Amino acid sequence: MAKHHVSATVNGDGVEFLCATDQTLLEVLRDELHLNGTKEGCGTGDCGACSVMLDGRLVCSCLVLGVEAEGRRIETIEGMAVGQELHVLQRKFLEHAALQCGICTPGILIAARALLARNPDPTEAEVRYWLAGNLCRCTGYHKIVEAVQDAAREMRGA
Question: Which end of the chain is less packed: N or C, by CB atoms within 10 Å?
Answer without folding.
Answer: N
